[in-house]
Amino acid sequence: MELNDHRDFLLNTAKTLLTIDSPSGFTHQVTAKAEEIAQGLGYETRRTNKGGLIILVPGREQGKRIGLCAHIDTLGLMCRAVTERGELMLTKIGGPQLPTLDGEYCRIYTRDGRVYTGTILSLSPASHVFDDALTRPRDEQNMYVRLDEKVRTSADVQALGIEVGDYICMDPKTTVTQSGFLKSRFIDDKGSVACLLTLLKLMSASGMRPRYDTEIHFTVYEEVSHGAATIPADLDELLAVDMGCVGLDLTCSEYQVSICAKDSAGPYDYDLVSRLIRLAKENNVDYAVDVYPHYTSDVAVALQAGGDMKAALIGPGVHASHGMERTHVDGMVETVKLTALYLECGAPDESIR
To answer: What pLDDT, on a 0 to 100 scale, did the predictor assign at position 311?
Structure first.
């Protein structure tokens, strides 16, 4: 499989997914796009009752059932109240770093399908007006959304159809530089979803299949900690493909695939992690092994839900997670390589063309 020929597909798929708003619980559009891509490559898909996507990839041999997972939901906001002045007060979905959102553009989705634009701001937004413009906390009690509509009262907002519980989605500001950097909010974890869809394209184009029957799960509630509860408990192995962390005493860079030995939920399976390290070494994959102290993945949820599978976690190195994130196409490519090696993709087969 020649991955260099598919770098454009990898980056274009990432950009496509990143520009579709999809905070946890509001993922129908991005899941439909991922399903459209997978079906276009010739793969069978199905949906979970919670809205997740499963892509079925037949293997060459019987003996194991393998799972891959990546989450397609993102961080976000929701309207929790409307002030008498027509300001939208907010509550977090997942764990966005609110100080990084001060001044960011956003979209507000009403329950009847209307979409409005606005700006996320401090309640003390102007240096020429407020003494505490620089020092006021940037948190849920001190930030709001300024609507791009003529509103002076809560009744004006209500007349637009905007209500408590409406989703507020931040502009990801997705950019790809000539030097190969992908800069965007929500690379965690749409970058990994793009990696897995690229692997499917590689297999489809070459006629190759994994060694064992494989199901790829794109989960939709990972950022609120119950995305993987629908992953079958009787899988033999589960490989989560999520972001790798960059910073402090971590060794991973944005140009590598990270292999996580342990996160806040505990260690990953020793044999499976060791196998991934061996595969990376033997095949010149640029990798790092790290321990993530402030991190958990879909694996923890799947295991806590009763899963009896061996599990591990890999992903491209991502800088500034839950803020304005950045990775490099090299790290994404190394992630695709290691995932393909893990699946033991083999000889061409006409049935997958």
So the answer is: 98
